[in-house]
Specification:
single chain, six-stranded antiparallel β-sheet, alpha+beta
């Protein structure tokens, strides 16, 4: 058995709590894998990511079940969901994806949805530009290119981060929102060009069911070699 421990530093907890309070719906945990009692590490890259994927989904299953138990007790309910992991669906499902695939159609990290003016609302712009029609990005073309290149779409991290069902409260200024995203990613991922990303089956737990209505369900593990940390990320939401 490999030694995996969740890293719960004050800064990590602060960053995740701030993101949650702003309306973010990505659920993230940070882990470190060390040698077990006989000095063994995971057999290979895939095995390490699988351990993190298992730990991530089990953690959030537990938290969801704890919530439903509390709700049931308060409302004198006998029936409530019980989430568990189908390891047969999870264990062989990991697929390594490249950075562009992981980030999604907004892969250059610089495109933000406009909110400042009525004539630019829901259009997209480079985050360090003015929100004017002259600077509008043809996001539909970018989405189409992405869909053709990655038809299975196991990525779209930027979309999941920035566009939850009920919006994220980062202010109306696109530069401010873009800088928040970049700062968040720099803290957790450091050098994007060095990270390893695996996408996992979102059929392995009912925790992913809500997003299948329309918004989406996502499950990734990311290895940050700069800090020698793994980040488990999942999301599944509806309106």
């Amino acid at each position: 058995m490999v030694n995996i421990q969740e890293i719960e530093s004050e800064e990590i907890k602060k960053r995740i709590a701030d993101f949650d309070n702003k309306g973010g719906v990505l659920r993230m945990s940070v882990f470190k894998i060390g040698k077990n009692y006989v000095g063994e590490l995971p057999a290979d890259e895939y095995a390490a990511h699988l351990i993190v994927a298992r730990q991530t989904v089990e953690k959030f299953n537990y938290e969801a079940n704890l919530h439903w138990n509390k709700v049931a007790a308060r409302n004198s309910r006998n029936n409530y969901p019980f989430l568990k992991t189908d390891f047969d669906l999870l264990d062989n499902s990991g697929v390594k994806i490249n950075l562009e695939h992981f980030l999604g159609p907004y892969f250059d990290l610089e495109v933000m949805r406009g909110k400042l003016r009525n004539d630019t609302l829901n259009a997209y712009f480079p985050f360090d530009s003015e929100e004017t029609l002259a600077n509008k990005v043809d996001i539909n073309s970018r989405r189409e290119i992405y869909r053709k290149k990655y038809p299975e779409n196991k990525g779209s991290f930027i979309y999941a981060f920035m566009e939850p069902p009920y919006s994220i409260r980062l202010g109306k200024d696109i530069k401010q929102r873009g800088e928040y995203l970049l700062d968040f990613m720099n803290f957790f991922f450091d050098d994007l060009n060095t990270i390893e990303v695996y996408a996992w089956n979102t059929e392995c737990s009912e925790i992913f069911d809500a997003g299948k209505e329309w918004w989406g369900s996502y499950f990734w593990t990311v290895y940050n070699p700069v800090k020698n940390r793994y980040i488990g990320i999942l999301a599944s939401e509806t309106d």
